[in-house]
């Protein structure tokens, strides 16, 4: 077995068929690009790259490589998400009118909570909340509701300085956002809002998504309870009884999200399906939002 601390050696090895890019964000573009050039299949963590330009370059390289190149948007593989998609596509919920999504974390609530955020400004590894938490959220929305037509966003950085290293008294300015609010209009006509924050004191949950239609609504958590779907239908199943019901969509032994996503990737590699999603084009779409 090959063990190395140098990703270039890994990419160059003839014994390696697949590269899993789980490096800091600033290395996604060089590592994934080199892997594709070396004829490897690539599974890349989100976000695809630091910028739209880098994501476009990777997308173009993947398209011409003849290899499977996917991004780890694992939440779309949850059984509740899959069930919600079927209900939307078959018209059970009627016309989709609006949605609301929240992704709430509290890990960076204190100025000394995460030195890497400040240090990252010098190495381009700082992770904006919209890239970090929001990338999964945007993928869920586009997977379920289609492409956005218009997007309006507002971001704020509330903690202006953080230590350059753990235990250090030296501080550096922070330029990544702590909170992001987004209003979206989708090409299908529905509208909605998204909130992503790393300063939700006392809360750590999400993404929580509610989608409203003219005949019914669905609500679910895309990560911690990804097999549980809350469903409301206007038409009464039993006369005189109506309301929300909670449905277990995953059975007794639900498949973990990461396992489901990686299984889909490996199946695409086995079958030679370079167009299987979520591919690098999917990652580029999220990057543009």
Automatic annotation (TrEMBL):
Q: Which GO terms describe its molecular function?
A: nucleotide binding; oxidoreductase activity
Q: Which UniProt keywords apply?
A: Oxidoreductase
Residue ranges occupied by any GFO/IDH/MocA-like oxidoreductase domain in the UniProt entry: 81-218
- Which residue range or ranges hold the Gfo/Idh/MocA-like oxidoreductase N-terminal domain? 5-72
Q: Which InterPro entries match?
A: Gfo/Idh/MocA-like_OxRdtase_N, Gfo/Idh/MocA_oxidrdct_glycsds, GFO_IDH_MocA-like_dom, NAD(P)-bd_dom_sf
Q: Where does the source fall among the domains of life?
A: Bacteria
Query: What SUPFAM superfamilies has UniProt attached to this entry?
Result: Glyceraldehyde-3-phosphate dehydrogenase-like, C-terminal domain, NAD(P)-binding Rossmann-fold domains
Query: This chain belongs to which protein, by name?
Result: Oxidoreductase
């Amino acid at each position: 077995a090959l063990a190395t601390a140098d990703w270039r050696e890994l990419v160059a090895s003839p014994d390696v068929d697949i590269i899993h890019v789980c490096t800091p964000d600033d290395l996604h573009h060089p590592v994934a690009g080199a892997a594709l050039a070396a004829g490897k299949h690539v599974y890349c963590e989100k976000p695809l790259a630091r910028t739209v330009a880098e994501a476009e370059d990777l997308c173009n390289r993947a398209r011409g490589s003849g290899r499977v190149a996917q991004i780890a948007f694992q939440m779309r593989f949850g059984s509740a998400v899959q069930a919600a998609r079927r209900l939307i596509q078959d018209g059970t919920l009627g016309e989709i009118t609006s949605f609301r999504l929240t992704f709430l974390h509290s890990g960076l609530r204190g100025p000394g909570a995460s030195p890497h955020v400040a240090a990252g400004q010098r190495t381009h590894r700082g992770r904006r909340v919209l890239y970090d938490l929001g990338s999964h959220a945007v993928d869920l929305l586009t997977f379920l509701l289609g492409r956005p037509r218009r997007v309006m966003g507002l971001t704020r950085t509330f903690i202006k300085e953080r230590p350059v290293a753990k235990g250090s008294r030296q501080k550096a300015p922070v330029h990544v956002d702590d909170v992001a609010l987004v209003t979206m209009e989708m090409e299908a006509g529905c509208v909605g809002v998204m909130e992503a924050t790393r300063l939700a004191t006392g809360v750590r949950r999400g993404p929580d998504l509610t989608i409203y239609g003219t005949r019914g609504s669905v609500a679910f958590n895309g990560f911690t309870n990804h097999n549980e779907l809350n469903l409301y239908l206007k038409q009464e199943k039993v006369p005189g009884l109506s309301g929300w019901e909670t449905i277990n969509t995953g059975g007794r032994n639900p498949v973990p999200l990461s396992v489901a996503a990686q299984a889909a990737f490996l199946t695409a590699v086995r079958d030679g399906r370079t167009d299987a999603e979520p591919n690098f084009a999917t990652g580029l779409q999220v990057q543009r939002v």
